Amino acid sequence: xxxxxxxxxxxxxxxxxxxxxxxxxxxxxxxxxxxxxxxxxxxxxxxxxxxxxxxxxxxxxxxxxxxxxxxxxxxxxxxxxxxxxxxxxxxxxxxxxxxxxxxxxxxxxxxxxxxxxxxxxxxxxxxxxxxxxxxxxxxxxxxxxxxxxxxxxxxxxxxxxxxxxxxxxxxxxxxxxxxxxxxxxxxxxxxxxxxxxxxxxxxxxxxxxxxxxxxxxxxxxxxxxxxxxxxxxxxxxxxxxxxxxxxxxxxxxxxxxxxxxxxxxxxxxxxxxxxxxxxxxxxxxxxxxxxxxxxxxxxxxxxxxxxxxxxxxxxxxxxxxxxxxxxxxxxxxxxxxxxxxxxxxxxxxxxxxxxxxxxxxxxxxxxxxxxxxxxxxxxxxxxxxxxxxxxxxxxxxxxxxxxxxxxxxxxxxxxxxxxxxxxxxxxxxxxxxxxxxxxxxxxxxxxxxxxxxxxxxxxxxxxxxxxxxxxxxxxxxxxxxxxxxxxxxxxxxxxxxxxxxxxxxxxxxxxxxxxxxxxxxxxxxxxxxxxxxxxxxxxxxxxxxxxxxxxxxxxxxxxxxxxxxxxxxxxxxxxxxxxxxxxxxxxxxxxxxxxxxxxxxxxxxxxxxxxxxxxxxxxxxxxxxxxxxxxxxxxxxxxxxxxxxxxxxxxxxxxxxxxxxxxxxxxxxxxxxxxxxxxxxxxxxxxxxxxxxxxxx
Length: 697
What we know:
Elements: E1 14-18, E2 21-25, H1 35-40, H2 47-64, H3 68-79, E3 86-87, E4 91-93, E5 96-102, E6 110-115, E7 121-125, H4 127-131, E8 138-144, E9 150-156, E10 163-169, E11 174-175, E12 180-189, E13 195-201, E14 207-214, E15 220-225, E16 232-237, E17 243-249, E18 254-260, E19 269-272, E20 280-285, E21 288-293, E22 302-307, E23 323-326, E24 333-339, E25 343-350, E26 353-360, E27 365-368, E28 376-379, E29 389-396, E30 399-407, E31 412-418, E32 430-438, E33 444-452, E34 463-467, H5 481-487, E35 492-496, H6 506-510, H7 518-533, E36 542-547, H8 549-560, E37 567-571, H9 577-580, H10 589-596, H11 603-612, E38 625-631, H12 640-652, E39 659-664, H13 675-693
Parallel strand pairs: 34-35, 34-36, 36-37, 37-38, 38-39
Antiparallel strand pairs: 1-2, 3-5, 4-5, 5-6, 6-7, 8-9, 9-10, 10-11, 10-12, 12-13, 13-14, 14-15, 16-17, 17-18, 18-19, 20-21, 21-22, 22-23, 24-25, 25-26, 26-27, 28-29, 29-30, 30-31, 32-33, 33-35
Helix pairs in contact: 3-13, 7-8
């Protein structure tokens, strides 16, 4: 037991009355009254709160001081698995080729282009220059105009996702004086390259409007206004350049508005009015609008099509004119799609793994799939519409990512780029496989395990069990140098594909949300129990890891099965669900109600959330070692969630296990922006996990 005493957060009881229920929150004061101002200016944080967070950081650093040599060893191991100088696959677009590159020793990748007619390259932007002058700097998405004259990029200088959209004239090399802000991050050029459409972020951090920005005059014209605070909005240009699509959606429902690409100043037309529970999005292909939808109980989604009318008026695009094309399959989840001039590409999922289906204009199909037990095929970015080449990637937990291009008419495959592991890597030394745990209700839960072939499966192996299980987001079985760092040391790396994700289809998501949310947590526990039952590991040899909404899983298992885990890692953990879903000032609260329920209006939702919310169910007991990490400028999972959680856990914990809080005072939800600083964060986490297993903390 360490002689270093942890900080003790003062208790300031706050009584909250809601829908006839009463609860108290002794650590509510950790939420700064001016938290919105702190997102854009961290120096505005109240002194008392800042001092407390600094005390927590100092305590965590002191406890972890003895692991410094291990941290450095793990960092160097991770770094040795990354190429110091590495370029992305080149993306051709007409007479230009676009790509990015990490230079040796640099934290951020720079963006370039080159002409197909010569060998010289043009630097588009080097983020390392700006990043060297401030504590946090990140480039988000980048895009070039269809005429290749302009280059647009969004930058974040606090980690708060308050994006600034900037435009560079590639003919003069000058960044235009107008900085479009605050931007939510979604934008696109018009096909004529005279305009850029962008999504406005309001004072509460929500995307509420779309403007058309005239590049020559800097004039902004309102194109779309979203009145429902529970809806996200984004904008994109079709690969064909024929249409601009505005999508408004929450987790249940969507609505699409379309603008002719040939007439970008025309008013947007609603394709189909939103109806609760009906989700759809569209693209254009082969003289049709292709509609991806869950309508008619197509919970795994289907594709419909509508001939594009010459005169785009409302009655010609009504639902009655839609035709079924790709029928719903209850066993196959239709994930995403791309439309080339002569080919329609879709990505489907069955029992975690994915496959690619290519359809030509005669409705003939070609299929690309993998042959490993667990793998991930993904569609890669393509800039050209009239192409016969499909770009895709293949990887698995034991196979580094390989970028390919597939010539559709001939079936010829070419490797564009193979992920390199500079320190050396031999895939034959490792094994990955799919196993199935049994849930409390009999459902089969897929798990992906990866480990060294030479370890003995004797029930004594340290195991990292990772889980997420929310929003329909799947944790795919990809190659990970972070996982490899554990595996090389004799660990088993396990992914629990629990309900709330979409690994077994959209119903897998529906069975782990709202009033079914408990399934997510119990599935994770069943996966851990199954690993013990099958003699892979044993209680107190398992380290659980969950990030963001996966942190909610971590909070639940800490309360309900502390005996099963040696340590719990919770990064930006969503652990204060009841308070967060009751706070309408937070940017994500209204959009999240379909996912969790609205405890402000629905007493059933209040009681259900209260029954599992980690912060509200802390009890006096032995807790395992816990490392919680957050970011001061995180607008998604605010810094006070992990801070309150650890403070309350310490007040109830009767074990001597360390409960650590680490708040990054210079970043937000995504953690460190640079590639090497991100590796140092990963090494810190791994050192914590390994030291706990070795009983060195």
